[in-house]
Sequence to fold (133 residues):
Amino acid sequence: MSYEPVFALFWERVKQSIQEGTYAKLTLAKTIGDTELKNMYIRPVLLEEGGYTLSIIARYKTEEIESFHSIDEAYAILFPYMNNPFMTALLFTTENDITFKLNKKRVGSIIEQAPTFKSASDVIIEMKDKGII
Fold:
């Protein structure tokens, strides 16, 4: 069974947290073995003409590569990295921490815990102030 439906539900929570202004940060982590790619960090960035895009920072052993994408493009880019090499995606919001996790059998699950962050990211706060979200 594919873990894609569970990851799609997780991604809906990501979109919801941005729209509601509770998004703090998103990280892909916990690699399988010793990989070149160590982490991926996703954060919103304001555009000069209004609106926002997502910055995806891929942290490798020797370099970092940043790219910018719409929220739907980001899903298409990040999904293939789940299971190869990442086993976990962590969404931090002001309401709760939401973890998408793959087990050894590659079955996906979503776990919610108490929030780590008390306030949303600075960009999300600015987006709220400007009426973007």
The chain has a mean pLDDT of 94. The first helix runs from residue 4 to 20. The helical segments are 4-20, 71-78, 122-129. DSSP finds three helices and seven strands in the chain.
